[in-house]
Amino acid sequence: MDLTQLSPDQVVYWQWGFWKLNATIVFTWGVMTVMIAVAWLITRRVTAAADIPRGQNALETIVDYIREQIREISGGDRPDPYLPFVGTLFLFIAVANLFAIVPGYVPPTASLSTTAALAGAVFLAVPAYGIARQGIRPYLRHYVQPNPVMLPFNIIGDLSRTLALAVRLFGNVMSGAKIVAVLVAVIPFLFPIVFRALGLLTGMIQAYIFAVLAMVYIASAMSATGESRGNEPDKEKSSERSDR
Amino acid sequence: MDAQTVIGLVSVVTAGFTIAIGSVGPALGEARALDRALAAIAQQPDEAGRITRTAFVGLAFIESTAIYCFVISIILIFANPFWTQISGG
After folding, report:
1. What is the ipTM of this complex?
2. Where are the beta strands (DSSP E) in chain A?
3. Is A141 contained in some domain?
């Protein structure tokens, strides 16, 4: 991918009529394969003994961290219903961005198609979780919550936050890749590496922000009609990592 | 200059100004928000987790305005409707 191409969608490897196999799809499949293979290899021999394998320890740390974050955002809810969705979003975006250290790899999140699909999944998941929790009428009632005048603004708010979710991830990852490409053309010595490292940090933060925002939107749909859940005291100690 | 040249010139210049001006406001706003968040963490390190998370969510909302400017400049450069109209694309 060079400078004139905006997204990896334009790198087409194989085409058969209407169906195109572009770089986005190929790298998405690559990321999926690696994640599934690693998870399968590690969970093949899971043990509950005191002496656990290293891989299981690493995965348990990640899952535990995601669960704790979800529990805090949702105000003490059980994280189990949200863990598959939010955890998958976080892990996929994080791994897709971190693979940028491999030469020749273009993150699939640098394509607006991927990020729009992820944001669309959040857009659909928010009413799904909300209706499953409250029923359809109480959920729809929160669109006219202060008064019916606010109906169009609530709908626009739903759409614009989905747009912002998609374009935020796309813009950050794409500009990170473009900055490296520009620097390779201008000062190819040492500086691209520094910005590549910065891109890794940005990619990790964007994955975190995407997952946290998805969970915040879901949590707001959960508590739309009732009392605000944000003020309940947390049961956890606030000993979580705060280095970001 | 024919119409195509004028549209190209105006689009590129406007895209530059859009992202330049549109990123200054959110940058100042995010700097203020981050300033307060860091001060709050320094005063109450026990609440660092909650403050960090709330700050990130708030920063993401502030950042939306810059993202809209980014979208418009991207549209002006890569998917300009007037340009495709003139050049017949």
Report:
1. 0.71
2. 12-16, 19-22
3. yes
Domain span at B62: 3-79
Domain enclosing residue A150, as ranges? 8-222
Smallest CA–CA distance, residue B1 to chain A, in Å, is: 26
A 148-207 → B contacts, CB under 8 A: 160-161, 163-164, 167-168, 171
Partners of B56 on chain A (C-beta within 8 Å) are: 208-209, 212, 244
Q: Give the residue from A124, A77, A116, A88 showing the smallest Cα distance to A219.
A: A77
Spell B39-69 as b/e; 16+ CB within 10 A means b.
ebbeeeeeebbbbbbbbbebbbebbbebbbb
**Structure token digits, residue A219:** 């949590």
Question: From B56, which residue of chain A is nearest by alpha-carbon distance?
Answer: A209
What the block records as the tokens of A240 is 């979580």
B20: domain CATH number? Answer: 1.20.20.10
Within a domain: B41: yes
- Residue B85: inside a domain, yes or no? no
Domain count of the fold of chain A: 1
Condensed to tens digits (0 to 9), the pLDDT of residues A126-184 reads 999 988 888 888 888 888 877 888 888 888 988 988 998 998 899 888 888 888 888 88
10-residue mean pLDDT profile of chain B (89 residues): values are 84 92 93 94 90 85 86 83 70
Which residues of chain A make contact with B60, given a CB cutoff of 8 A? Answer: 164, 168, 209, 213
Examine residue B86 and state whether it is found in any structural domain, yes or no: no
Q: Which residue of B has its CA nearest to A215?
A: B57
